[in-house]
Amino acid sequence: MPQHSHDDFNWFHTTKLGKMFNGDSYQFISNLRANSIDLIVTSPPFGLVREKEYGNVPADEYINWFKPYAHQFKRILKHSGSLVIDIGGVWNKGEPTRHLYHFKLLIMLCDEYGFNLAQDFYWWNPAKLPTPAEWVTVRRIRVKDALNKIWWLSKSPWPKASNRRVLQPYSDSMEDLLTNGYKPNLRPSGHDISDRFQNDNGAAIPPNLLAIANTESNSPYLRYCRSKQLRPHPARFPVELPEFFVRMLTDEGDLVLDPFAGSCVTGEVCERLRRRWICAELVEAYLEGAMGRFETRAKRSTQRKNTNWEPSDNDYFKLPRVGLLWESRTTDKLAKDGGKKRPRTGNRRVNPDKSRRAKGRSRD
Ligand SMILES: C[S@@+](CC[C@H](N)C(=O)[O-])C[C@H]1O[C@@H](n2cnc3c(N)ncnc32)[C@H](O)[C@@H]1O
Fold this sequence. Notes:
Blueprint: E1 13-14, E2 18-22, H1 25-30, E3 37-42, H2 62-76, E4 77-87, H3 101-111, E5 116-124, H4 133-138, E6 147-154, H5 172-180, E7 209-211, H6 220-227, H7 240-249, E8 255-258, H8 265-273, E9 276-281, H9 284-295, H10 297-303, H11 352-362
Parallel strand pairs: 2-9, 3-4, 3-8, 5-7, 8-9
Antiparallel strand pairs: 1-2, 4-6, 5-6
Residues 24-26, 43, 45, 54, 233, 235-237, 260, 262-263, 265, 280-283, 286 line the site of S-adenosylmethionine.
């Protein structure tokens, strides 16, 4: 098959830095030149046990469906490049157990295609609803599934990267430590915390848990869709997610690909950060909506230039400390059948006074 230069396609839309292709992404990437892409960042259709509107692949067939993509991704990535896949988990049909497809995908990519797992990330969406209701809110035998896995893979063990690009403000406790000092000692884990940790580097290195609430409700993209009577894409990732990796793994002028572009969030991020980008999306209507991301760019880019920004309490997602509501003894017996028999009565309520008191404490 002839390899195209990135200018040869019949593009749906182009900007100064980016190009959108409407059609099958496998055909599209098969025609890209080898070793030409710095970063592939994407959220592919998830494997599902029930079909969604944009033709997801059944979880059991996912690995075989993905293999041709794996081959092409490896071929088109530069040696220094990275492949970042955001992927959600799925429950097995009719059972309170989880499918393993996204772990199998990771193992397949490393074992069969020679990718390196540079690091596994987890996107925590605090706004996730407690589903599936049957297991979480009715039988109360599982907890909320609020994490997507993000596999950061690379062609070489040393992809280009810098965590200095994605620093975050120090937490209150770290600020306190820097101001008031810390007595170096041994942690329960056995780590010797030396006074090196007291250096004020201006900002903190983030963990591999990305806390981003997916609650977009009045963005320029959504307003554009409303004004054109287009239905917004139903499974968008938040801008901060591709932005984290574009910042950390690419330089200005590098080439980024999103082969399952949806509403083209990746393109929007690249445009703002001055990376070149290409994307492909099967459904034309999604790209029509994506146009809203580029028409309003001038307005949007000014939103980020607030150099006087100071972190506030709302800039941190707080995880309540585990154990806040625990009683000294567990008096209620667990169902011997693991919740197989559906309960008839309502849920037992936590004492609201105690719950409120604990909430107050958790903010200390
Ligand atoms: C999870 S969504 C991506 C959403 C996107 N990250 C966003 O934030 O808008 C996956 C997308 O892949 C598209 N898709 C599925 N199969 C495709 C294919 N063979 N070629 C191109 N796009 C495809 C779907 O139409 C869907 O929009």
